[in-house]
Structure formats: structure tokens, C-alpha cells
Amino acid sequence: DSWIEVADLRKVYTPRRSEPTTALQDIDFQVRRGEFISVVGPSGCGKTTLLKILAGLIPYGEGAVRVAGRDVDGPMPEIGMVFQEATLLPWRTILQNVMVPVEVQGLSRDAHRAQARKLLEMVGLDGFEEQYPSQLSGGMQQRAGICRALVHDPAVLLMDEPFGALDAMTREYMNVELLRIWQQSGQTIVLVTHSIPEAVFLSDRVIVLTPRPGRIAEVIDIEMDRP
Ligand code: ADP
Ligand code: ADP
Question: What are the entry keywords (predicted)?
């Protein structure tokens, strides 16, 4: 059963003052529930465009995009998104930051506060709930960002270079953390990265894109025994 379905997707940007760019062409793939896939390729191959389309943040021209059985036609509660920077609100505590999607979507705070605390504990941030973002390291802030993306139990977690702003060692550590989070949550994850080793380390399947226009060059199945 496919949790994400992308068929014959084509995306052309038509800026008013310059030539149109075909960012994506002939994109076809499916993601099963609980699967972890990565999208890799050089800068400009359309990775961010693909993620934004899945997230319903930009319209796509042609093709079909379905998430959790629904046609994507705008931002949907089925999606959780992690950006390159944690983008936590500095005036809110860590717990209050994690609760933001619950408030934005008008869900019950009481029902989700326990989930928020559980997620923070899962990523090793128990005890930091009442602290402010500036009191935490970059890696800790990004972990809080992951909790925020998961708090409303989305069908799919989308991540765009989530650890790109972190130093190499923290990044490596965070990748191991992410694998652990994935194993515990059973999330369906689409990760965009320019690092092939990272993609191979993390995912079940790696989709490699070519630039201009972004097409699927190959899909690599990663055979591995998870610990
Ligand atoms: P990546 O994330 O792989 O670096 P992007 O999705 O950012 O690739 O961009 C894919 C292509 O689309 C690039 O050629 C880029 O210049 C172009 N592009 C991206 N966003 C826009 C936009 N808003 N307007 C015009 N062209 C864009
Ligand atoms: P990345 O490579 O990290 O995905 P980019 O530098 O390609 O980021 O793009 C950053 C943002 O700028 C993208 O989200 C895209 O919307 C916008 N962008 C990229 N290329 C263009 C372009 N040619 N014209 C207008 N906007 C663009």
C-alpha cells in the first residue's frame, strides 16, 4: 500500500522576468507506509521543489501527487516538515514550540501535551521542556524541530537537509538519532540531502535526480540489516 504516490510529475517555474525553468520532469515514484526514502542530487536538481510540492507549499503543473490517499492541493495536516534551520520561536519554551502545530491546526492542547513530552523524551530533551531555544545547542534545537514536526502524528515526515546547518560531528550524531527516532515512531519519511553517504546510511531507498530538468536518474534499493 502506497502512502505517497507521485505520477508523471512535471514542474515548470515561469518567472515573470526570466526564462522558464523545468525543475522536474517525468517524476514517478511511490513510498510505502513506514518507508524511509532519500532524494539526492546536485544543487538545482529540484530536490527542494519536490519536497515543497509534497508539502503542498507550491502548486505543481502536471501529474498527480497523493499523500495518505489524498490529492495534495495545499498544506495538509497529514504532513510534518523539518527545515534546514530549526526555526524555533525564541520567545517560546521548547515545549511551547513543539506545540505550535497543535495550536495552528486547532487540535486539543490537553490531548497533545503528553505526546509532546513523550517525543521530547524520545530525543533526549526531557528536562529541557521549560527552557528557551537559545539555551540549547544547534543539534538540540533541531531535535526539538523534529518533535514539532511529529507532535500531531502526521502521516508523512518531510525533511529538507535537516542537519545541513550543523557541524560535521553533530550531523553524524543526529543521523544516528534520526534512525532511532524512525525506528521508534515507524514514520514514513522523505529526506532531501546532497550527501549520498548520508542517504545510504539512513534510507531504505535512494532516489537520485539529475539537474535541469530534474529527472530520476536511478533508484537505489539499500539492502541492510537494521540493528
Ligand atoms: P535543489 O533543491 O535540488 O537545489 P531546487 O528545487 O531549489 O533544487 O531548484 C530546481 C531548479 O528550479 C533550479 O534550476 C532552480 O534555479 C529553479 N527554481 C527553484 N525555485 C524557483 C523559483 N521560485 N523560480 C524560478 N526558478 C526556480
Ligand atoms: P537549495 O539548493 O538549498 O535547495 P536554492 O539556493 O536552490 O536552495 O534555493 C533557495 C530558494 O530560492 C528555493 O526555495 C527557491 O524557491 C528559490 N529559488 C531558487 N532558484 C531560484 C530562481 N532561479 N528564481 C527564483 N527563486 C529561486
Answer: ATP-binding, Nucleotide-binding, Transport
